[in-house]
């Protein structure tokens, strides 16, 4: 009997693509990666993953490749930039899928803001611009401070808090000239300018229309929004947790989502919770691993099962606390060594330590997730202990970076 296949279109670059393949195999499925350059994902060779070289930016090419693989029961992706395309391909093949148009709306920050406003959900004042001068005009109308970000993007790439006109022009120029975070993504030509939301930031991890939990987010120094760590579950009162979860679920419904995983970012402002963005996919930043450590819920396996049409309902098997902290590059240059990994592994509460950067790799400070070099994941009986352990473990790790010649 032929093995049923799960198609994975491209992959992300932080490891969960490999976990998607492993989850498919645990379900008795054959994972098949479609990619323009399969060799850019080392796990394809390590794990002997079947793969097909194809122009993944072409809908018809992807659909044809799926047909040639045969006995396909699902089509999905672990990459932000291919979720909408895989949903459309799956729909065309009569396979399980989220609504492609809803996914596209969520991924376009301008369209998302408009849809939320139409649904009566409070959003900050906002506008879009294609030039620095136009962005300045919008900022002056809204009132400083404002946040400038690409209309389409993830991982904090190009997101900046702006206190004045000069900041806005600098931020817009950086977005429009930015090197893209993933293959096949269009070059940004539009930025979103919106009023700054005060208060701490959280994310709501959902599966279908159910809240799995709320994650606390740690951010690096302003004016950037680089995520430096996460705590799960977030240290919140029951009422605040309920309010944050409710606004996330209402936002998903307003957009037309509620199938599979979503990762909704929320700020708890002085006026109540406000939506920052909706990511119609599994969380990045290794949050699924943190959730699994804290609750036993394997969200990656849930996503793979849902894509393959299997019945799934996430159920926690235990209730603990888990945290992750990232070690970030502090300068550009060649990464020549990562020290302290073994020491971090010996710290109480540490369950995983790993490298994101590769020795010999040239690093360029991007003020985004791409600045990460290593991570530490911890688990404990309470959130304070997990967070303290993660901070201690991360302090053990140091990167050796040789600046480029002539940099001073």
Q: Describe it for me?
A:
With 408 residues, the chain is α+β, with helices and mostly antiparallel strands. It has four domains: 5-97, 3-Layer(aba) Sandwich (Rossmann fold), CATH 3.40.50; 99-117 and 197-319, 2-Layer Sandwich (D-amino Acid Aminotransferase, Chain A, domain 1); 125-195, ATP-grasp fold, A domain (Dna Ligase, domain 1), CATH 3.30.1490; 323-408, Aldehyde Oxidoreductase, domain 3 (Alpha-Beta Complex), CATH 3.90.1170.50. 32% of the residues lie in helices and 28% in strands. The chain contains 13 helices and 19 strands. It has helices at residues 16-26, 43-46, 59-69, 83-92, 100-107, 109-118, 132-142, 165-176, 238-255, 287-295, 299-307, 341-345, 383-395; strands at 5-9, 30-35, 50-53, 72-76, 126-129, 146-150, 160-162, 191-195, 201-207, 210-219, 227-232, 261-269, 272-279, 321-328, 333-339, 350-355, 362-363, 372-380, 398-402. An eight-stranded antiparallel β-sheet has the order 13-12-9-10-11-14-18-16, with helices on both faces. Strands 3-2-1-4 form a four-stranded parallel β-sheet, sandwiched between helices. A four-stranded antiparallel β-sheet has the order 5-8-6-7, with helices on both faces. Strand 2 (30-35), helix 2 (43-46) and strand 3 form a beta-alpha-beta unit. Helix 7 crosses helix 8 (165-176). The relative contact order is 0.12. The model is unreliable at 180-184 (pLDDT under 50).
């Amino acid at each position: 009997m032929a093995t049923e296949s799960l198609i994975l279109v491209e992959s992300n670059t932080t490891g969960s693509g490999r976990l998607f393949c492993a989850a498919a195999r645990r379900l008795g499925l054959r994972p098949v990666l479609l990619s323009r350059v399969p060799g850019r994902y080392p796990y394809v060779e390590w794990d002997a993953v079947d793969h097909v070289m194809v122009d993944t930016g072409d809908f018809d090419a992807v659909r044809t490749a799926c047909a040639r693989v045969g006995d396909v029961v699902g089509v999905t992706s672990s990459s932000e930039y291919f979720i909408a395309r895989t949903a459309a391909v799956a729909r065309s093949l009569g396979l399980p899928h989220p609504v492609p148009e809803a996914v596209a709306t969520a991924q376009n920050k301008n369209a998302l803001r408009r849809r939320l406003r139409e649904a009566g959900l409070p959003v900050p004042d906002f506008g879009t611009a294609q030039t620095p001068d136009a962005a300045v005009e919008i900022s002056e109308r809204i009132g400083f401070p404002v946040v400038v970000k690409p209309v389409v993007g993830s991982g904090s790439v190009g997101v900046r808090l702006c206190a004045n006109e000069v900041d806005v022009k600098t931020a817009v120029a950086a977005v429009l000239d930015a090197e893209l975070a993933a293959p096949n993504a269009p070059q940004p030509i539009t930025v979103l300018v919106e009023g700054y939301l005060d208060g701490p930031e959280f994310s709501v991890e959902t599966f279908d229309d159910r809240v799995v939990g709320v994650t606390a987010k740690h951010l690096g120094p302003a004016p950037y929004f680089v995520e430096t760590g996460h705590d799960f579950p977030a240290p919140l009162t029951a009422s605040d947790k309920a309010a944050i979860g409710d606004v996330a679920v209402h936002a998903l419904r307003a957009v037309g989502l509620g199938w599979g995983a979503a990762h909704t970012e929320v700020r708890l402002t002085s006026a109540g919770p406000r939506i920052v963005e909706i990511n119609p996919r599994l969380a990045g930043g290794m949050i699924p691993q943190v959730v699994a450590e804290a609750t036993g819920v394997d969200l990656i396996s849930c996503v793979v099962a849902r894509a393959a049409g299997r019945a799934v309902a996430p159920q926690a098997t235990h209730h603990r606390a888990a945290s992750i902290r990232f070690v970030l590059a502090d300068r550009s240059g060649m990464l020549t060594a990562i020290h302290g990994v073994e020491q971090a592994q010996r710290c109480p509460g540490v369950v995983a330590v790993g490298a994101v950067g590769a020795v010999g790799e040239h690093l360029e400070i991007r003020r985004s997730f791409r600045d990460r070099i290593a991570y530490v994941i911890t688990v404990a009986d309470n959130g304070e202990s997990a967070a303290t352990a993660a901070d201690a473990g991360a302090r053990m790790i140091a990167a050796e970076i040789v600046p480029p010649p002539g940099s001073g």
